[in-house]
């Protein structure tokens, strides 16, 4: 079992090493315990919560309704926890994660402030060794990566960034004691989800805000509000049916808001406006579900995009600013953003928008940011530059598999795997919501639950039948990669440079990483298990 040892020694041996104490890692630990498996979690942060531990920037909020963005493995937990708003804030989600950790006594098997430096497989003993920055190591039969899809902050360098006299902050690594913007001149670089959430709040607090935008994003209103107690009671009266309906949708959410049955390319202008106005008034990620072909039919997508652009123009009073805020890409090929007063913020007298699409940021000066020869004086710079998504945190683990080949070498041309769960050459190594699975295209807590339970069942199957290892075969892996690429090619998702493709990271291979279509994926993964783990090599 796990025990504290001296630096440079093996701390102990467990059945399962889990990396990350976010929602995936916590449930994986709980699931291992229920299956009678010994497990330990290594977490680089000082507490549970994963992305909700690190992303404490102003306005941080989930874009999945709180009654859906929550665990469903415990009916008691579902009934006892009370969410206050339709879309929960970061502090409330973090309190929920902490409550779960305490309620199920998870902390005793989580080692905080523990950074994994390498994970290596020994073929002779069929064991993994996980090494930490403090010099200790732990042996295990299995390793499960629960590092999350959006946990490796992307911090681009700028000429002169070491000369800037003020603070430089990243939304994904926000100071835990907060930031006081009162009387400050602030710059926000980036207008993706974190920037769009933070900008309205910072604008209310600071003296002046300058937003530096390279690519405009489509965003729809959240229309957040306190939860209606009667609505909450109705859900809790039959939570299982609510969850079941959600799991049958493409994104594993919004089962009570069915996708429209018409093509946006075929309806009248009046019908288009009626449907989209209703969706806009309701708000949220299901806006594109008003029609059945928004993400597969370019003509339909164009009509929806044009409608949203007109909406932006009607909200933002300055025509030049409104024009800059209108994207020229497919709507939805980048993750749709859910906002609270974003476009309205640009009507404030203390907010300015600087376009850096054609004339990028030249450099940081001691006093601010220089674009096209013009210095914009600021006191604080906020990098809302997102993440090295899907693979960034996985590759930072320094995983080395069979014959000393690293995961970084194996994925040199892009992430290859089977089911988004396992990689050929890496026996007994699993990924939760890895590339090649629906992950970020879903309510990720539903995808997490599915993967955790699939992995736990696989491990117990091995033990019950006398097998020592499970490994994806090369043929199954190649077929799966072809399948993921084929499904993506049927959609409009690959039609713009998004973090789904890794396009925000210089030098990263351009491959569409998540798999659209949650219910079909679950059916395929279930079929693999029922067919004695077809596509995996099980060895004694």
Query: How many angstroms separate the termini?
Result: 23 Å
Silhouette: globular
Low-confidence stretches: 1-9
For the largest beta-sheet, the strand count, sense and barrel status come to: 8 strands, mixed
Count of β-strands = 20
Task: Please give the radius of gyration in angstroms.
Answer: 24 Å
What is the strand and helix layout of this fold?
Elements: E1 10-19, H1 23-34, E2 39-42, H2 51-54, H3 75-80, H4 90-103, E3 110-111, E4 116-122, E5 127-132, E6 137-145, E7 167-170, E8 185-189, H5 193-205, E9 208-213, E10 219-221, H6 229-236, H7 239-247, H8 269-282, H9 298-315, H10 319-324, E11 337-339, H11 342-345, E12 351-355, E13 361-364, E14 368-371, E15 374-377, E16 380-383, H12 392-395, E17 399-400, H13 407-410, E18 429-431, H14 444-464, E19 469-472, H15 474-489, H16 518-530, E20 536-539
Parallel strand pairs: 1-2, 1-6, 2-3, 4-17, 6-18, 7-16, 8-9, 8-16, 9-12, 10-11
Antiparallel strand pairs: 4-5, 5-6, 13-14, 14-15, 19-20
Helix pairs in contact: 1-14, 14-16
């Amino acid at each position: 079992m796990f025990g504290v040892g001296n630096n440079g020694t093996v701390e102990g041996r467990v059945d399962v090493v889990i990396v990350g104490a976010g929602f995936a890692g916590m449930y994986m630990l709980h699931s291992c315990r229920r299956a009678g498996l010994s497990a330990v979690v290594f977490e680089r942060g000082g507490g549970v919560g994963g992305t909700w531990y690190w992303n404490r920037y102003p306005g941080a909020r989930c874009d999945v309704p709180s009654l859906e963005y929550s665990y469903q493995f415990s009916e008691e937990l579902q009934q006892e926890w009370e969410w206050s708003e339709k879309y929960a804030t970061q502090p409330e989600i973090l309190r929920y994660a902490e409550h779960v950790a305490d309620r199920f006594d998870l902390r005793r098997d989580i080692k905080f402030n523990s950074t994994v430096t390498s994970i290596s497989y020994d073929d002779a003993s069929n064991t993994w060794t996980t090494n930490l920055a403090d010099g200790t190591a732990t042996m295990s039969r299995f390793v499960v990566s629960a590092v999350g899809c959006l946990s490796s902050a992307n911090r681009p360098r700028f000429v002169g960034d070491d000369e800037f006299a003020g603070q430089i902050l990243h939304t994904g690594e926000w100071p835990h004691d907060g930031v006081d913007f009162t009387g400050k001149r602030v710059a926000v670089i980036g207008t993706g989800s974190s920037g769009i959430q933070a900008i309205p709040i910072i604008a209310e607090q600071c003296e002046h805000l300058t937003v530096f935008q390279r690519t405009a994003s489509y965003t729809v209103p959240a229309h957040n509000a306190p939860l209606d107690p009667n609505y909450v009671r109705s859900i809790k009266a039959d939570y299982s049916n609510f969850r079941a309906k959600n799991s049958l949708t493409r994104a594993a959410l919004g089962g009570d808001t069915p996708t429209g049955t018409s093509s946006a390319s075929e309806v009248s202008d009046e019908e288009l406006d009626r449907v989209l106005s209703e969706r806009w008034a309701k708000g949220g990620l299901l806006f594109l579900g008003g029609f059945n072909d928004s993400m597969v039919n370019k003509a339909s997508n164009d009509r929806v995009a044009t409608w949203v652009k007109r909406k932006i123009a009607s909200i933002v009073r300055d025509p030049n600013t409104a024009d800059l805020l209108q994207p020229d890409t497919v709507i939805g090929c980048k993750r749709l953003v859910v906002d609270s007063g974003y476009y309205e913020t640009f009507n404030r007298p203390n907010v300015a928008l600087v376009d850096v699409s054609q004339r990028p940021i030249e450099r940081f000066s001691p006093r601010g940011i220089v674009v096209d020869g013009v210095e914009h004086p600021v006191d604080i710079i906020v990098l809302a530059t997102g993440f090295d998504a899907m693979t960034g945190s996985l590759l930072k683990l320094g995983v080395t598999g069979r014959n000393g080949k690293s995961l970084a070498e194996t994925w040199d041309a892009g992430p290859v795997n089977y089911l988004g769960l396992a990689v050929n050459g890496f026996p007994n190594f699993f990924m939760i919501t890895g590339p090649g699975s629906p992950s970020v295209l879903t309510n990720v807590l539903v995808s997490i639950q599915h993967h955790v339970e699939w992995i736990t069942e696989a491990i117990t199957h091995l033990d019950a039948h006398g097998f020592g290892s499970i490994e994806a075969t090369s043929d199954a892996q190649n077929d799966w990669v072809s399948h993921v690429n084929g499904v993506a090619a049927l959609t409009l998702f690959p039609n713009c440079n998004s973090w789904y493709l890794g396009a925000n990271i210089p030098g990263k291979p351009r491959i569409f990483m998540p798999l659209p279509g949650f219910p079909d994926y679950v059916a395929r993964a279930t079929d693999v298990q029922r067919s004695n783990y077809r596509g995996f090599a099980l060895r004694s």
